[in-house]
Amino acid sequence: MCYLQFPLLSKSPRLQRMVVNKSEESSDEIDIPDIPGGPSTFEICAKFCYGMIVTLNAYNVVGARCAAEYLEMHETVEKGNLIFKIDVFLNTSVFRTWKDSIIVLQTTKSFQPWSEDLKVVSQCIESIAFKASFDPAEVEWSYTYNRKKLQSENGLGTQWNGVRKQQSVPKDWWVEDLCELEMSSYKRVLMSIKANARVSCEVIGEALKSYAYRRLPGFSKSNLTDGGDLARCHSLLETIVWLLPIKRDSVSCSFLLKLLKAAMLLDCSKNCVKELIRRTGQQLAEASVDDLLIPASDGGRTLYDVDLVLNVIEEFLMHENSNDQSNLLISEEHHESRGSASVSGNSVLAVAKLIDGYLAEAAKDTNLPLLKFVELAEMIPGSSRPIHDGLYRAIDMFLKEHPDLTKSEKKKICSLMDCKKLSPEACMHVVQNERLPLRVVVQVLFFEQLRQSTAAGAAPYQSLVPHTASYGSSRSSAMRTNTASEWDGVPTTGDIGSLKSMKLIGRRGTGSEKSSRSGGDTGKNGEDKGDAKAKAVPTPNRMLSSFWLGKAQGGENSSSDTSESRRSMNPEEVKSHRGA
């Protein structure tokens, strides 16, 4: 049989064999069920054989190439055969075009394993990775970029003179286009880009962030359980974590915490969660309170996953300790470590502030155990909190949401706070806060008076501790803060009334101070009779005296002390009162 009379058979040895087999069976039909791409790709091959015009593009070239390989349309069979023509088209057109390379790579999935065996997949990956590694200044092809560029990336410098320069190409110009790829292809492309070592870790991190937001439904709202294939999301998330660059700060801490939140929701592997905790702990100083509000897993009693946050903080502290040891070794060799120590100290201060804010939010959960609150607060050393306002706010919130705490429990939670480290504004709030034990209020009054007296250059203890036979004999007893009897002491009606109307003394003198210095008419108690309209509240000195005298006399406050609690006293009056 002369196959040259049949152009299709002359270019395809496989078809020749199939025709011979069918002729022996006396059959006029040839069935080709397993040709890649089916009838559409066979049509392309048949048209080529009969000299008809064939249109190849990025969408059908892979199917045509696999079908030609199936039909064995090689150059050895006939010069200028279809396989040769397609390979030329791929190398001279498709692989030189950015978006066509991505489209071709997407279509290869439908022609596995043919596309893999024919190296079409690997050639697409190499082409894409090579172009993504280009210097942005040399990028001349079109790409998708919908995100806002920086002013400098738009050709507008900080000192723009009104003449718009040609817009520059951003470093992450390729990120959005690659989000169109399925995870298996995306993983291989990104690995190839990383292997080229010409793209920064920050850009790689930005690419993974964009892919997570695009491919994980509900990721932006941390609600992956609504819609989407959970098994697919599980696999995709673990792959993203595996692809994260090793370099610290290649992705933001906020993104890491979103990944961690998603990993907990999807019940990812322990290694995945552990890796995210490690990375998050290293960058915890960059996080916000909202980032840490990770919902507890199903079946948990608390609203938020406090144990997970404890693990992250523990990782942070371990990282900081290792840095401190490294800085110590460096300082011993070079005698210079001030810069590193400063950075480390700032990180701890930032995390302390972060944890205080988290405590204030977690305290709103009525199911949060006291021990968990205390454990979390004690994770950060006291030296890392120069001001305890944030911690006080969290304690106050916990007391508000847990009104059934016992006296010992209130004592335990309030012992976390150092009254000496409260700001004047926080002190003002403390003395008006009925949720706090009275002993805490007295401590605040004492240290605020001590602060003001020290600033005035006077001897503070002589003015603060009343000279009574029953209580003034032991100054250390007046300053004691941790005994159960003093902490749990029940305030009298006079104490509570005075505390409610209490306002702390201003640090500077008022107009009444000037009048007292000029010899204004004062009564025997030091009152300015000319200032009859001025009705203020007791000084910390008077409140302490009233409180301690009440303790010494069996808890009874005199009516004169209570009435005098409405009178103001400026710093000069304090001095005159001491002298009296």
Automatic annotation (TrEMBL):
Keywords: Ubl conjugation pathway. Pfam families: NPH3. It comes from the Eukaryota. InterPro entries: NPH3/RPT2-like (IPR043454), NPH3_dom (IPR027356), SKP1/BTB/POZ_sf (IPR011333). Belongs to the NPH3 family. Pathway: Protein modification; protein ubiquitination. Residues 482-580 are annotated as: Disordered. Residues 172-451 form the NPH3 domain. It comes from Platanthera guangdongensis. Residues 524-534, 563-580 have a biased composition (Basic and acidic residues). Coiled coil: none annotated. This is BTB/POZ domain-containing protein NPY2.
